[in-house]
Amino acid sequence: MKLDNKVAVVTGSGQGLGLAYAQDLARHGAAVVVNDVDQAIADAAVSSIVEAGGKAVAVVAPVGSTETAQKLVAGAVGSFGRLDIMVTNAGILRDKVLWKMTDDDFDAVVNVHLRGTFTCAREAAVHFRAQGDGGRIVCIGSPAGQRGNFGQTNYSGSKAGIVGMVRTWAMELGRAGVTVNAVCPVAATAMTESVPFLQPYIEAMKSGDPLPPFARRELGFGTPADAAGIVSFLASDAGAEVTGQAFAVGGDRLALWTHPDMIATSYRDGGWSADSIAETWADTFADSLESVGENLPVEPAR
């Protein structure tokens, strides 16, 4: 699991999950480029890594544009001589239901999450192919992108798109020795503080109380540090054969998401008209319809 002599960029790593990823990569020996839009937050993140014995520098810039992606890769190469790991974590929220979501709400989230993942991964891929000794791309997705989430058209769409891009990039970059994977974490961060059913657990954590097993296991919910190990694993030699996958992580739970697949199939000579679909619907597809959103368990009374 050693990442000595490896160099990583982690976007959106001034705090929260991104900081946990950066700190864990540094703890395993990687030099890290920390990224945030706030200089003070980025500097504090760098200090936390350096004071723990690691190596880090900051690149302050908003993720989304090609210019920022180039700055991040250049920051890694200029400070540490190379780039081996790109973790695309930066994100924002602009939650609203569909009929209230503005163009700006949509574009802002898509620009950071989807376009930012694309531009940073593309810049890393160009560098990895020129460098000639492989590389690792870890893109941060979300359960919302796998199953949808109320009020998150922009976020869910972006996160679903990220997993689709990961599957494609895994095919395109395989011959170059570059692995590409997605991680879909659930953790207590500023982005989950607005989720009502998580409030009791977040308040408990703020008070220093341990999370109950139900939260850590059934909900797969924990601290940002709980979600960091899978990123370091995928960045390491131990994860060299793993590519094109989407992992769920949080609390005590680590899981692998499946590909979307056809779960009910029927055939009809000559094809399907609307009438023929209606005639056979109840017997062929009605009992196989997929749910939307996460079907979260309810904690038993204590």
TrEMBL record:
InterPro entries listed in its UniProt record: KR_dom, NAD(P)-bd_dom_sf, Peroxisomal_Beta-Oxidation, Sc_DH/Rdtase_CS, SDR_fam
Top-rank taxon, per record: Bacteria
Signal sequence interval, chain numbering: none
The keyword Nucleus appears for this protein: no
Pfam families associated with the record: adh_short (PF00106)
Record-annotated Ketoreductase domain positions: 6-194
Keyword field: Oxidoreductase
Family statement: Belongs to the short-chain dehydrogenases/reductases (SDR) family.
PANTHER family to which the protein is assigned, alphabetical: DEHYDROGENASES, SHORT CHAIN (PTHR45024), SCP2 DOMAIN-CONTAINING PROTEIN (PTHR45024:SF2)
Protein name: 4-hydroxyphenyl-beta-hydroxyacyl-CoA dehydrogenase
Biological source species: Rhodococcus sovatensis
Classification of source organism: Bacteria, Bacillati, Actinomycetota, Actinomycetes, Mycobacteriales
Gene (UniProt): couN
